[in-house]
Amino acid sequence: MGFKCGIVGLPNVGKSTLFNALTQTAAAEAANYPFCTIEPNVGEVGVPDPRLDMLSKIGKSQTTIPTRLTFVDIAGLVRGASKGEGLGNQFLAVIREVDAVAYVVRCFEDDDITHVENRIDPVSDAEVVETELMLSDLDSLEKRRNAAEKKAKGGDKDAKALVALMDKALDLLREGKPARMAKLTPEEEAPYKALQLLTSKPVLYVCNVDEGSAATGNAFSRKVEERAKAEGAGCVVISAKIESEFSGLAPEDRDAFLADLGLEEAGLNKLIREGYKLLGLITYFTVGPKEARAWTVTRGTKGPGAAGVIHTDFEKGFIRAETIAYHDFVACGGEVGAKEAGKMRLEGKEYVVKDGDVMHFRFAN
Question: How far is 72 from 253, CA to CA, in rounded Å?
Answer without folding.
Answer: 28
